[in-house]
Amino acid sequence: MSVIEFLHSRRAIRNYDKREVEREKIEQLLSAAILAPNDRLREPWSFFVIQGEAKQRYEQVALDYLEERFPTKPKLIESSIEVVKSTPAIIMVTSDIASNEADTRDNEYAVCCAIHSMWLAAEELELGFVWRTRGVGLVHDQRSYEFIGSPEGKKMVGTIFLGYPDPKELGENKTKKRTSFEEKTIWL
Ligand SMILES: Cc1cc2nc3c(=O)[nH]c(=O)nc-3n(C[C@H](O)[C@H](O)[C@H](O)COP(=O)(O)O)c2cc1C
Asked: So where are the chain's domains?
């Protein structure tokens, strides 16, 4: 498939089968990520791979977050935790905070490119992938920093949920809902 074809077929996959993701495949995703464009080659990304025992700790952190955020919604908590439990691998991605705001912002843009590269690579490797920030993605919650050891000068940008797709996901209609570029473009 060409890159343009992959861009058309790529989509968020949120349900996985139980199969573990091989380390080699995760390494292929990370190898793709670090090729992303980045200003002055600051290579501002760091990746935190979460599987096995670390994933059990992640589940507990997510549960603490959900219980605090949604104290009156036990069903939501249960279904959200089930999402974490049924995800074979999680990767948290941070961006380096630079000495000035513009560089910090450029670093974040580069990390976004890196995550998108991983997403396309996942498509080629037939892995299901979704970039999460909200809810159990924990990107906007301080607990995510504590979970990765509170490293200095890093901003959380994305939490990737990863696994082999549940076959039911693959049967779904792949048509993308997007506004046409004509409606989003001004030719000056
Ligand atoms: C920055 C960012 C944050 C996202 N956060 C979430 C999230 O918290 N939960 C989720 O289910 N999907 C999340 N997504 C995935 C989007 O919902 C998904 O990309 C969108 O619905 C378009 O579908 P597609 O990726 O299949 O084209 C996020 C995507 C991006 C780029």
From this structure: 3-184
